[in-house]
Specification:
Blueprint: H1 2-25, H2 34-46, E1 49-50, H3 51-58, H4 62-75, E2 78-83, E3 86-94, H5 96-116, H6 122-145
Antiparallel strand pairs: 1-3, 2-3
Helix pairs in contact: 1-5, 3-4
């Protein structure tokens, strides 16, 4: 049974990697690095964040984050503004242009998945993936809360 779960983990990892890479092909059109895209994604799904929070989330030094954010701001993908309660704190938010990039990447990923799975019964696959997601989410929440 252990071997089966090793294969399940391996297959899930390979699938995620390939879907992620297909989405990253779009980034070439915009001159974005993987780290910059990670920042855009985080802002898109989580809302505006402090620079310090972004550097922790992406796993880069604050000085590196400053450079990444400056280049992205110059390109029009994000906006910076000062936190009203403390003008020393810089908040970063995704711009409408940045949102369009995220949407385009998602569209490309969906097209890739759709064309890849065209010969598989979608309803059964979706039902099983929902079950897998629920089970993994519940276990993840337990681990996170301990």
């Amino acid at each position: 049974m252990e071997k089966e779960f090793e294969e399940i983990e391996l297959l899930m990892r390979r699938i995620c990697f390939r879907v992620k890479v297909v989405g990253r092909f779009v980034l070439k059109d915009f001159g974005l690095s993987a780290s910059q895209f990670d920042i855009l994604q985080y802002l898109y799904f989580s809302g505006s964040k402090r620079m310090s929070e972004l550097s922790k989330k992406v796993g880069v030094a604050k000085s590196t984050m400053t450079g990444l954010v400056s280049r992205m701001e110059s390109a029009g993908y994000i906006k910076k503004h000062y936190f009203e309660e403390d003008k020393r704190v810089i908040l970063v938010e995704i711009s409408s242009q940045g949102k369009r990039i995220i949407k385009r990447v998602i569209e490309e990923r969906v097209k890739f998945v759709a064309t890849s799975l065209k010969n598989i019964k979608h309803s059964e696959l979706l039902d099983n993936l929902r079950k897998v997601n629920t089970a993994i989410s519940e276990k993840f929440d337990q681990l996170k809360n301990n």
